Amino acid sequence: MAQQQKLLLEVRDLTIQFGGVVALDNISLEIYDDEILGLIGPNGAGKTTLFNCLSRLYRQDSGDILVKGESITSLGPQDMARRGIGRTFQNIALFETMTVIENVLTGGQFGMNSGLAADVFGGRKVREQRAETRDRIMHLLELLNLADIADHTITDQNFAVRKRIEFARALAAKPSLLMLDEPAGGLNREEVHHLEDLIRQVRDEFKVAVLLVEHHLNLVMKVSDRVIAMDFGQKIADGLPHEVRSHPQVLEAYLGEEVA
Ligand SMILES: Nc1ncnc2c1ncn2[C@@H]1O[C@H](COP(=O)(O)OP(=O)(O)O)[C@@H](O)[C@H]1O
Ligand SMILES: [Mg+2]
Predict the structure, then answer these.
(1) Pocket residues for ligand 1 (CB within 6 Å)?
(2) What is the position in ligand 1's atom list of the atom closest to the CA of 43?
(3) DSSP H or E stretch at residue 212
(4) What's the pLDDT tens digit per position in 140-164?
(5) Which is the closest atom of ligand 1 to the Cα of 45?
(6) Which fold has domain 2-84+175-253?
(7) pTM for the full model?
(8) 17 CA distance to ligand 1 middle (Å)
């Protein structure tokens, strides 16, 4: 399915070294519109490094990254939302003293953070835009099961809820690509199950491509349209989930690891 779709993001021969460690070794890959692409690999494979290069937190030593045909390697992390790239963090980063909805709104660059009831004295167009935003954000909160706690502060929320809030915040910016770094980390079995449904639902409803970076193999295999496996900074397999799962190099890379 993915292969017939439009190319959204392209990584070309990306290399980055930290001291003597080649964290990414000439890696190339493509991400297509609306696909769920799983990125797996044992600890230290380079998944987070790739993620950080894509969100421009790390600058590569060589190679290129193109979004919709345009290189983004001269841009910084603050430019990514405008390019349609959204992300969540492996260690959650929310504003503790703000409410759930205020946190979600910070993702959207709406220029409004005074709550949804904020009245509007602007023209009809502004009112319409605000109404559209309000409907969209409410829909987002409902989908992520956050509507009931929209006005609660972050401090009171548990880990799984915080993950959903971060998810909602990333989606508020209407990304064309949503990057999730280990979203299953720290979740229990039931929460992981819920996350599987959620990722598919989000892709279907928001027509967004998802890059799912995850150590949790079962989750990736169930949810992804396509899977890329990495080891030692290189791509070792790229194909349908069942193909990648049974790939000899993937089995070898995960040998001796507890396969979740
Ligand atoms: N900021 C950094 N400084 C030094 N080494 C790093 C840094 N980021 C990643 N690395 C190294 O790069 C390799 C890949 O790490 P990482 O991308 O975090 O792997 P993964 O996310 O697949 O577990 C590891 O050897 C790691 O120690
Ligand atoms: Mg990592």
Answers:
(1) 18, 21, 23, 41, 43-49
(2) 23
(3) strand 209-213
(4) 999 999 999 999 999 989 988 998 9
(5) 22
(6) Rossmann fold (3.40.50)
(7) 0.88
(8) 9
